[in-house]
Amino acid sequence: MSAAAPKLFISYRREETAGHAGRLYDAVATRFGADNVFMDVELAPGIDFVERITRAVGDCHTLLVVIGPRWASVRAPDGGGLARLAEADDYVRLEVETALRRADVRVIPVLVAGAQMPQPEQLPESLRALARRNAIELSDGRWRFDVGRLVDALDDEAGDARPAPAPAPLRVPSGALLLIEGALVTACAALLAHRVAVSVTDALDLDRDPATVVRRALNWGLLAAAVAAWLRLRVGGRGSVAGAVALGALAGAAGGALDAVLWLWVMEPSAGALRDDVARVAVGLLLGGLLGALWSPPRVVFGALAGACAAFLAQALLNTVWALDPGASASDARDYTFVTLQAVAVVAAALALLLWLAARRAPVSRPPR
After folding, report:
1. DSSP 270-318
2. What domains sit in the chain, N to C, each tagged with a CATH number?
3. pTM: predicted TM-score of the whole model, two decimal places
């Protein structure tokens, strides 16, 4: 096998091990790239599923067979009491059979949820060679460590030409900690970014409108760059920290400038609160989309939608506060207040949705496995 990243195929029984397979996918996709990992073959109507599975398995170097406690005994609802594996057209059986027939495909049983390797007599004749394969156990209690062993084994087979493994993706049980960290990092970054933006625009001595554009571009650009650097360091993923910072600065600056342009020149002042809502939602879209782009696997659309909704709700809250205390909107603290509140809301909402998707990763729709 060459030193290039190995192509992996994850075979699993959806009704039993979908959650474990999703976590495993996130880990190996982060290390080897989503393009090198297959999970769920999407079958359009009229497609020969045997040919499609044969081609997909043939394109990979390694088949990871995720085995739960009932992997060999799950029964079809209308199969007359037979185990799924006894059916010749069972997807999981076809995937494993195809891989076992190929000398160039390595088959690794992956035991989850306390499963044991099935005995040869529990398997169809065509699958009995699987019982002789050395398995690796992924325990829920030591998931990171066990997945690290598996990734190291795949690395050893691929060769030593690649750089050291990237940090493993965040485990979902640590989601609350991630949200708290994100809120604190965002609030601190907002404070520093605001002070820098004010100092720069004061030093440039710009007119009011250009100063507003520059200030908001700097404000959101610096804030987004800091959040992007934190997220890349915290959860890992593809790409460098410098690349994440550059992407964050670009997305934040674009969002801040768009915010100012919409507020100053596009929306009529008579639009009132609507003008604020539209401008801030634009920022929420870009900042949330940035977090989605840095996630593994990328979830740009989900991040952007969560960010836009959070920005709208945060702006609605600010509009209410300012309606109760009109003097607050005239103070210099207004910019820092809305940037901090909205940035924290956008980051928290986007991360919460991304964590939820990671915990409930829904495979591509296909017939029951």
Report:
1. GGTHHHHHHHHHHHHHHHHHHHHHHSSS--HHHHHHHHHHHHHHHHHHH
2. 8-169 (3.40.50.10140), 172-358 (no CATH)
3. 0.51
